[in-house]
Protein: Pyrroloquinoline quinone biosynthesis peptide chaperone PqqD
Organism: Rhodoblastus acidophilus
Amino acid sequence: MTEDDFTGEARPYLLRGVRLKHDQVRKCWVLLAPERFLRLNGISVDILQRCDGAAPLARIVDELTQKYQADRAVVERDVRALLAGLYDKRMLGL
């Protein structure tokens, strides 16, 4: 899947068995899946905390644009890239 395959109405969510967790030992946020582990940066955490299956992609982008006072096109491109990568890794559904 590419970034362009996501519509503004897509409602991303973490797939069953995938968890967003703060790792106390490593003192960082991680995305855990069966036999997989991804260390996340702060913005990725902000994005994934909004991926609850209820919020459409357009609203997630709007909230992050406002929070970070950033250009909407840049935020949308970055959010789509992250979500497409996680979709390809079978960690995210739409």
Observations:
- The first strand starts at residue 13 and ends at 14.
